[in-house]
Amino acid sequence: MCACSLKDRLSLSPFRIFILIFLLGLMVRIILPEVKLLHHDEAIHAWFTYDLITKGTYLYDPMYHGPLLYYLTGAAFLLFKDSDMIVRFLPGLFGAAIIPLFWILYREGWVKCNHALVGALFFAISPCMVYFSRFLRHDIFQLFFTVALLVFLLMYFDKGRWQDAAGAAVCAACGLSLKEDMPFTLLIFGSFFLFMILNGRIALPLTWRRDLGAGLLIMVAIGATCYTTFFTHPEMFIQAPFKAIEHWMGIHGQCRLCGGPYWYLLILGLYEVPIALLAGVAVWQYGIREKGFAEVRIGIASYLKQLIGGGGFFKPYVGIGDRSRFFFLLALYWTVLSMIFYGYVGEKVPWLIIHQLFPMILLAAYDVQSRVKFIAVGIACVFLCVMMVHVCYTPADINEPMVQVQNSEDMREVMKLIDNSNSVVVATESYWPLPWYYRGDKWDKISFYGHKVEPSVFESKHPDLVITHDTESYPDLPGYEKKQYKLSYWFSWYDNKDRVPMYYLFRDGKTGSINLDVFVKEKSGSSIVQ
User: Fold this and answer.
1) Digit-coded pLDDT (tens) for 495-525
2) Which of 75, 222, 440, 469 is the most exposed place for a label (fewest CB within 10 A)?
3) What is the reported pTM?
């Protein structure tokens, strides 16, 4: 039974099924936004945005990526309120907005009904996609503009409308204004479509020169507006690209968060294994059973023969043929190059998996027609849902690589102590997410030193609470009770490498952590200096 026959069995049209999938995807992305504290990076992004809207200050720094995230979040703060709910709602909205793009791909004939439905469903419940759609980082916004860019490009090559060229330019510019790795995505799309044009599969519209020129002007206008902070720092229009290149080359060489080229394969094995397996089956089906690889080899050989023989760069136009197979080849090309690129880049962080996972979802959803494949899709959905609920909604610290350097739930207890104090001393540089949660006037009672200082330095402040890093702390402070809390935590390979099968099944074990020593003033405490 094919998915589209559900409209006969359940009186549901494909469009209504898409609506249900979209609502499911939106719901899992926006419910319980405060079940986990903001991640270290989320708190920084939220605080930078708060600083932007309250002080009007922002200057591009590649360490914190592109400016568009802060403008979008700032607009949401101004329209609603600066809160954890809005911080989590905005990426959830952009993540869910990717699901309707599957429908457009189907409507425009680039994928078949089953392909679009299953792909949308996998995307809606994917643990990695949902988790990083509930996470204020640039990547889910970048992915939205990446997929929208692809949709506009396909519609432009199909219909030649200037509106689609303009839409593609806007999406490309927004993606470039979010993350420094967006040029690589443009290179993937550009190289694929360029070869298809040269090989006679795609014909450029007669107005392509005009459309390209207008598109470049749109991209320059958007990029200049964003990176110069609405032209208050015009020098950044020239400096930003060089800063971005310098930053990425620097972190690649530092191996700050390094891992082998297989690192993202391990992430897929932990959270997305059904999608990876179904993608592998689809590649075999397309490439071997349907002889797709042979067709690709013949196409490349034919083009090279013409080129070497002096026949020119352009082959006569022959058209695309089967659009679904053309689209699968595009998704395969995108997947392979993305995995090579991110596997090569020295810094390995879990949120970059979504740029590799999305085209893999497009592969995994290919040609779901047989009963066996439908059963496999059902089993996959069960696995994905279980993992998604676990990583997104467990209201406790979890030992998962996906939640790298997540702020611990212990910090809720620390913040209760801060709330009940009149004077607080923070004598450590490890203090995020406190600036976000105590933004504005709430920070007035906090004295921040950034490192361990002698108690005599802050004795005059009569603090009710003193917070230090546990490795740079005091043996004791007279009149204070010493407690220890986790600030943030991460999956520790060294503590779990000898129990991998047990870890995979139960997802337990010891985590690495940054710990805080918190000194709580006793009711009848004496002087802290003796």
Assistant:
1) 999 999 999 999 999 999 999 999 999 986 5
2) 440
3) 0.95
